[in-house]
Every structure is written in C-alpha cells, then in structure tokens.
Protein: Putative cytochrome P460
Organism: Bradyrhizobium oligotrophicum S58
Amino acid sequence: MGHAMNRAARLAILIAATAGAVFLRSSAAPGELALSPIFGVGIPPDYRHWELVGVAHETGLDELRGIVGNAAAIEAYRAGTLPFPDGAILVKLAWKHVQSTEFEPAFVPGPATTVQVMVKDSIRYRSTGGWGFGRFIDGRPVDEAQHQTCFGCHAAGVKEHDFVFTRLAP
C-alpha cells in the first residue's frame, strides 16, 4: 500500500506540475499535498537552490527575509522584463530577527516564521494580475482569510512593477 501511495503521489505531482501548479508534499502525512487555499499554490521542492533576488528587513515584523527566484524570474529581472513571464516563481523566506550569540553587533536569522510563494500564470490567475499566492507556516498553508489579503496589498503598492515588491539586489 505504501508503494501505491508513493506512486499515486508521484502521479499527482506530475499532473499538477504539467498543469502549472507548484507545491511540496506536506510533512504532516505521506502523499498529502500542502496547497494554499484560493490559489492552489505550494512550496516548490527545489527553491533552496534558486538564486537570491534580494533581502528585506521589515521592522514592524522584526523579521529578516530572503527572496529567491527560479530561472524564469531571474532571467526576467536581469533583462528588465515586465510583466514577468508565465512560469516565474518567487519565494520569500522569513525568520525572526535575533542577535548573534557570536558577534554582539550582528543580527542573524532565528526561528523560521513563514515561506511565501508567488507563481506567475496569466491565465489561471487572471483576476489577481496573473499571480497566484501561497503563505506557509511550518510547511502548512495559512488560512483562507490571510490569502485573501495578498493581492490587495500587491495591487495597492506595486501594480506598475507587475505586482512584485522585490527588486533585484545590485
């Protein structure tokens, strides 16, 4: 049965990947997919190998953040291409901002807080500027109410930059 479940999970991954969905299997139960409500976006399994787009420090949240992009996103950034092409994916990792125990003036990432994902698919996410959103805590998507706020914030702040806040760091 375990082999069949793994096979079924692999088939679901292949089907979803072909349809443009991006996700990571949930750590909660084997074969269970962790997808965001509303958008059906998940955490790309290889995002930790992607290139750095930039970093952010949001004082109100007391977090350090690193933003990475897949090859399509990085190519668009370097070429100055807007809108981003379908298939571009951005992932923002956030950690608590804590003082280094080894070097007092420095701050380093502490406990992880969230992983946030933006997936460009101009057909599937037409009503949200071509972007699907996912926000995850401990690998699990947050509730639907939080996902309803994603596009509104991006539309209010960076509509002219294809709804993306992060710029490529020099």
User: Anything to note?
Assistant: The longest strand covers residues 107-120. The domain at 2-161 is CATH 3.50.70 (Chalcone isomerase). The beta strands are 24-25, 33-34, 51-58, 63-69, 89-99, 107-120, 131-137, 140-141.
